[in-house]
Amino acid sequence: MYKIVEREVLVPNIVHIKVEAPYVAQAAQPGQFVILRVDEQGERFPMSLADWDREKGTINIAFFVLGTSTMKLAALKEGDSILDCVGPLGNPTEIENYGNVLLACGCFGIGPTIKLAEALKEKGNKIISVMEARSKAYLFWQDRLRDVSDEFHVVVGDSSYGKKEWTNDFIQEYLRAGNKVDIIFAHGCPFMMMECSKASKPFGVKTIVSLTTIMVDGTGMCGSCRITVGEETKFACVDGPEFDGHEVDWDNLIMRQRRYIPQEYRSFSLWERDNWHKIMDVALYEKEKLLMMQQG
User: Fold this and answer.
1) pLDDT tens digits, one per residue of 51-63
2) The pTM is what?
3) For 108-120, how does the pLDDT look when each residue is reduced to its tens digit (9 = 90+)?
4) How far apart, in whole angstroms, are the C-alpha atoms of residue 188 and residue 193?
5) Could you identify which of 18, 84, 138, 266 might form a hypothetical disulfide with 6, taking C-beta atoms 3.0 to 4.6 angstroms apart as the criterion?
6) Which of 271, 215, 273 is nearest to 33 (CA)?
7) What is the set of domains in the chain, with CATH numbers?
8) Taking the C-alpha atoms of 113, 118, 119 and 123 in order, what is their torsion angle to the nearest 10 degrees?
9) DSSP 3-state percent helix, strand, coil across the chain (nearest 5)
10) Mean pLDDT (the chain, rounded)
């Protein structure tokens, strides 16, 4: 069992938890992930690592509440435990002195990007970061990413925070303006990473994306996470999770990510019907926690 020692709702539908997992924390490196199982009836699903503390033996995860498993995870409070936490899995990011590095991130990809920026900064790279969100209300951890960046930019999909644009628009404009970028790392939802890859491809700037697709065992045995990269079959769990975004067959990836949507909808509806009280309990817990913080 892996105890949750901290829990925080960052923005609507994005939750941050800190979990006691000393063996994972001791070995974790930028780019890696863990596979969680909330309870005995739960599925195994991958989560990128947002941070870790080797001395305290904790790992940090920021996740988007989307389906049954993430809703189960979001319904847990501080002091509750996760049944399984396996990792760190996947190949670490190749941390080198590339020169000028552009980091594009959004949603649950913000946490892993901050940790990556820290490591790349230590190698002497210039860090240009761009963070995206649907609107100003969905932005979080801006200060943390700004602190480890030489240039920091924010883009939103509406007009609530400056210019209306997305990370792919920023990349295209930034490169078109003649700014030198040696490599791009993109972390976020598949669509965001796909669009970033499309934006950078005409300029020939290598773009690395992180693919934590549907997984079961995380060791390459089940084949559920297979993707096509450069016309070759790869497994995201053991060959990745990072790949050249210009080589990924995005149409195939998105199709495979959507293959269980009817089952996912049914699973979520059934769980929500039987566990609505847990959602109410955690909402009340957050309200009481906020009041306590305001009072002292």
Assistant:
1) 999 999 999 999 9
2) 0.88
3) 999 999 999 999 9
4) 6
5) 18
6) 215
7) 2-90+261-295 (2.40.30.10), 100-210 (3.40.50.80)
8) 130
9) 35, 30, 35
10) 90
